[in-house]
Design the sequence.
């Protein structure tokens, strides 16, 4: 059974194509994601020969030295600028076992079938291959959400649903990754007004691409702008919280460490807490 289409795929491509030319002026969140991914990759002491940059934007991600890199973006203009292919993350055109490393920074929050996209990323990895992902997670843009809710009498979905860090970890497990880890880093971004935030959303191709979307009337937009401005702090800026969720997972391999078999411990937890674990194990 196919999952429901949350996002309009054609609208998502159009938004990304419009954003491509001026993207460099709005790329700070993805830059933070790539920095976080680089930090996590630095802790991995191994070589990667074939890398997939999944959701490549203009190809800013720099792969490990001497690695071959394939790039994919759901927008045609970004894919062309990066020398990659255009396709959706939940419809990958690559054969199973094609890569040692898959990096996905900044687009997974807009995928129709996120569990399917993660499963395909895992399948595209060779055994013991590494997946590193990052996206804007649940809890983000609370000020914008509140301003939009207060601007209309009838509640209408204006922003994409977001995945929190706990659910993200569950999705890694569901996709079949070994040694899954999901963690979050929080940023605070200041805006002088609603217009600047909307410019950043449009400039990264992140404006509303919901399948069931409705135009925002001018009077409602004006009320939203006023409501957003009313949340400004003493320096006249509205502070938006942005949670960056980072994902780490490995394609299963027989060589990976395995958790101990349930019931195999020689010392009980109670004995360890009493400090007589040695006697318990010798008994």
Sequence:
């Amino acid at each position: 059974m196919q999952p429901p289409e949350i996002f309009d795929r054609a609208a998502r491509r159009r938004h990304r194509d419009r954003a491509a030319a001026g993207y460099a002026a709005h790329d700070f969140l993805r830059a933070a994601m790539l920095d976080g991914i680089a930090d996590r990759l630095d802790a991995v002491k191994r070589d990667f020969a074939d890398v997939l940059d999944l959701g490549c934007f203009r190809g800013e991600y720099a792969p490990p030295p001497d690695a071959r890199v394939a790039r994919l973006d759901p927008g045609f203009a970004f894919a062309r600028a990066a020398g990659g292919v255009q396709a959706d993350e939940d419809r990958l055109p690559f054969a199973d076992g094609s890569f040692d490393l898959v990096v996905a920074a900044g687009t997974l929050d807009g995928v129709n079938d996120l569990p399917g996209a993660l499963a395909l990323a895992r399948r595209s990895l060779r055994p013991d291959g590494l997946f590193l992902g990052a996206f804007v997670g649940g809890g983000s843009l609370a000020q914008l959400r509140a301003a939009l809710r207060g601007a209309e009498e009838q509640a209408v979905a204006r922003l994409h649903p977001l995945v929190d860090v706990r659910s993200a970890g569950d999705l890694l497990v569901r996709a079949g990754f070994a040694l899954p880890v999901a963690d979050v880093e929080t940023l605070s971004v200041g805006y002088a007004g609603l217009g600047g935030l909307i410019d950043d959303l449009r400039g990264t191709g992140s404006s509303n691409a919901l399948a069931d979307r409705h135009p925002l009337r001018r009077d409602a937009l004006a009320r939203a702008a006023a409501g957003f401005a009313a949340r400004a702090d003493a320096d006249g800026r509205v502070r938006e919280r942005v949670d960056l969720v980072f994902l780490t997972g490995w394609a299963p391999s027989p060589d990976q460490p395995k958790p101990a078999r349930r019931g195999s411990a020689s010392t009980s937890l109670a004995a360890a807490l009493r400090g007589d674990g040695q006697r318990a194990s010798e008994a």
